[in-house]
């Protein structure tokens, strides 16, 4: 009986404990004021509780142990994001392939699912995705930030996010939005859902009409909704342009909810940005032009009013994530109480 009571009390204590968030900006770890606590080599990193970390840039993807010893490496031009699959079973990486079209070397995107031992479990590229979707390949000049190490002048695609789909709380509106499948997003083509082995395009995700269709960080929530950072939301009947965090109906692409600010210019990020759902009431927003924000809503109201709080200003490669990194930092000899907790 005593053992049961102690276990019950421990469970209650664990449930009541608030998550302690630090911030990962590329390969830097920041406290809630934006102060750098630790920096690792690379442009995009994933940090693990045992002190190990993955690091990627335009030269390759590398995995280090807690002593910074290199365990494995995959050569290649990696860009935008480095994520974990749902359940933290594998790494998800966006990389680059060169494909010859009409005798012209052209940059395409590749999507890699990689084991923690450095094995490529599944692989797909944008040329095949666009072919399956019967969409015409573009021929755009490669932007300067994507040019490093790429032996081509043009690109057919510019994908910027790659996530796995989490467990759904109810039957999703689209059957393709199934746990274990993947969602990818491109600036010009929008989003696609790929099968759990990345081989098949299962469906195309409709998106709002936007100037140049500049959308970043497309994800599927556990409610089967589409969450995006819409860089250039066009306002009908007006030349005004602003960015917005939006939750979309997956079958129509029409926003169920859209958040921006007044004045519009205070929340405008033309090229980069991201959004991270922390829980049902809190979203972390990375706005390349304005900083990092916490979007929260009172529990008494389902949608409005939302509270918008700036955490800190920063200049970053692509996106900032709120992560529970206390254990990782401790193994590297760093202790800080300047973390973010989410209020009730």
Give a short synopsis of this structure:
This protein has four helices and 26 strands.
CATH class: Mainly Beta
Spatial extent as radius of gyration: 20 Å
Question: Which structural category do the helix and sheet elements fall into?
Answer: mainly beta
Instruction: Measure the end-to-end span.
Output: 32 Å
Number of helices: 4
CATH fold-type name = Lipocalin
Mean pLDDT: 85
Portion in strands: 35-45%
Low-confidence runs (pLDDT<50, min 5 residues)?
A: 1-16, 300-305
Order of helices and strands: HEEEEEEEEEEEHEHEEEEEEEEEEEEEEH
Q: Based on the structure given, which CATH architecture is correct?
A: Beta Barrel
- The total of beta strands comes to 26
- Tell me the major beta sheet: 6 strands, mixed
How would you describe the shape? globular
The total number of structural domains is 1
Helix content: under 10%
Write the layout of secondary structure elements.
Blueprint: H1 2-16, E1 22-25, E2 28-30, E3 36-39, E4 44-47, E5 53-57, E6 60-64, E7 70-75, E8 82-84, E9 91-101, E10 104-114, E11 120-125, H2 126-132, E12 140-141, H3 144-147, E13 154-155, E14 159-164, E15 182-186, E16 190-194, E17 201-205, E18 215-220, E19 226-234, E20 241-248, E21 255-259, E22 274-279, E23 282-287, E24 291-296, E25 307-312, E26 320-323, H4 326-331
Parallel strand pairs: 10-13
Antiparallel strand pairs: 1-2, 1-26, 2-3, 4-5, 5-6, 6-7, 8-9, 9-10, 10-11, 12-13, 14-15, 15-16, 16-17, 18-19, 19-20, 20-21, 22-23, 23-24, 24-25
